[in-house]
């Protein structure tokens, strides 16, 4: 129980010692991992939809595109 006061105060310690907090570092890593994996796939799907929609509109409409 001697370390009980240290749990959850990483942001306070980072202000005292001048480095990034562990929670901030973890957040940055999670965001980076998200962008490496899921965001690229979603972007590609969105771009594919935009391209198909643009093609459909250029052909003259919904019924004429089939």
Q: What key phrases describe this protein's structure?
A:
rod-shaped; 70% helix; 2 helices; mainly alpha; 66 residues
Give a verbal description of the structure.
The chain has 66 residues and is mainly α. The chain has two helices and no strands. It is rod-shaped. The chain starts with 9 loop residues before the first helix and ends in a 7-residue tail after the last helix. 0% of the residues are buried.
Q: What topology emerges from the helices and strands here?
A:
Layout: H1 10-17, H2 22-59
Strand content: under 5%
Amino-to-carboxy terminus distance: 70 Å
Sheet with the most strands, sense and barrel status: none
Treating each run of at least 4 consecutive H or I residues as one helix, how many helices? 2
- DSSP summary, beta strand count: 0
**Cα gyration radius (Å):** 24 Å
Q: Tell me the series of helices and strands, N- to C-terminal.
A: HH
Structural class: mainly alpha
- Report the uncertain regions: none
Instruction: Name the helicity range.
Output: 55-70%
> What is the residue-averaged pLDDT?
76
Morphology call: rod-shaped
